Amino acid sequence: MLIGATKTDGTNTLKRPFVPEKFKFGNSASKRTRNTQFDRVVPSNEIVKSKGNKRHSIRGSVSAMRTTNPIRSVVDKLDLTQANPEFPVISLSLGDPTVHFKTHPIVTHALTEAVESYSANGYPPMIGLHKARNAVAEYHTRMGKNVTFEADDVIMTNGCSQAIQLSLSALADAGIHNVLIPNPGFSLYKSICTNLGVEAREYELDESNGWELDLESIQKSIDDNTVAIILTSPSNPTGAVHSIRSVTKLLEICEQNGIVLIADEIYYGHVFQSIEWKSVAEINSQLEHSAAVLCLGGLSKRFLVPGWCLGWILIHDPTNMLGEVRIALEKVSSLMVGPSGPTQDALPRILKEVPESWHLELISQLEQNAMFCYEQVKKNPVLSAIKPQGSMFMLIRIEFERLLDISDSVAFANGLFQEKSVVVLPGECFGSTYHFRISYTAPIHTLQEAFNRIHHFCLDHSRKY
Questions:
Q1: DSSP for residue 287
Q2: Total structural domains in the chain?
Q3: How far apart are CA 264 and CA 297, in angstroms?
Q4: Ranges for the Aminotransferase class I/classII large domain (predicted)?
Q5: What is the CB neighbour count within 10 angstroms for residue 406?
């Protein structure tokens, strides 16, 4: 968990924070894992005696024991007693908009109506109710330009997280294939690859160029065993929106190499004013030689109901390269018999009746919050950031050479929580030692208080020039 350091008496110096093994991930952590007892295959009926205990211990599976979700390892085990009691806790950690925003009434009415109808209480088809799949296809056809989807192009999932898992399960074989993931990027990509026994290769996002895709890094990472590239735009954690030009070139790379592009578009449409954005499917449909694309989406961010866990996979395959992958997606979907029936039953009304003006108002408020945070960062000589273009996040760089006793983002996040009761996520959760991530869904007055505390924390630990 995030907590572990304590203040020494009478000073602001932080002891080196305790960082649990589950939080230490990356290449060095992978090497440690490969050297552990979990590396060998253990028969399921093997029983091992615990030292100094007459009881017995049964081993967990190799795939389970190597699995971790860095974000949840921090947030779910946060010890609030370690916060400074002089300040109420302010959390800027999770991208959960429901703490400060409410969904549109049509959304909740649609679900209530579905539950009270008793029409969707049975087992749904493994790939989802036809009415839900058709609603998703019509919605994305209506929202895009020159792109058409049918119900057969849609797989319903338990949230966008399962959409990621099903996509990778359908494409990659353990110990053989590799998948390219963004760095910095959403930690679940690597977590799922690790669980599946698939190599996750990081490609770089160029901070000096507004977190744009580093196409050279991508091309260098591809080999004959690369089966997919994951793209996140709008991005978690950077808040960047990749240019249409860069996405076009990435699609061309995928087409030339026979690689599937997995477009994580859970922040579909969460793009700020004056920023040009198109869905990957829309860009792909305009190319002379289209790539094979899986577009992932869901209700959670756009409709502010992450707890409903309803997502989908949209198959965009103009040149019919994904025939076997369609079958594979259906097969892995059968491991869990579809997401909630009532939620799927409510989906057609939600996608059809919630006005676009409501979405635009939400995005406008998020943009105001983002710009406020960006201006606050600019006032702090220890911090810097790229101006966000969408999603709900900002990745903030820490200039460690300006600090006396803090040398990585875990120590920074620990100290900020213990001294000022502000929760942020260390950049290590996303592949960077030099940053921390904030979500700016809180009201402006809360963000102001949070940044006041962050500013004073930085001053307390700054070198005196």
A1: S
A2: 2
A3: 7
A4: 89-454
A5: 26
- Please give the Cα distance from 202 to 236 (Å, whole number): 15
Which is it for the CA torsion 153, 283, 162, 95, positive or negative? Answer: negative
Q: Are 188 and 326 in contact (CB under 8 A)?
A: no
Cα(291)–Cα(252) distance, rounded to whole angstroms?
7
Distance CA 413, CA 410 (A): 5
Q: How far is CA 357 from CA 163, 190, 350, 354, in A?
A: 28, 36, 14, 9
CATH of the domain at 342: 3.40.640.10
Rounded Cα gap, residues 454 and 403, in angstroms: 13
pLDDT in tens, 331-345: 999 998 889 999 999
Domain boundary pick from 335, 353, 371? 353
User: What DSSP designation does 36 have?
Assistant: S
Among 308, 324, 353, the domain boundary falls at 353
- Nearest CA to 211 among 420, 443, 430? 430
Tokens of 58: 């049964």
Residue 365 token pair:
């408020």
By DSSP bridging, strand 435-439 and strand 425-426 are: antiparallel
Count Cβ atoms below 10 Å from residue 207 Cβ, excluding itself: 20
pLDDT digits (tens, 9 = 90+) for 181-214: 999 999 999 999 999 999 999 999 999 999 999 9
Residue type for position 149: F
**Distance between CA atoms of 380 and 452, rounded to whole angstroms?**
10
Tokens standing for 64? 């389970």
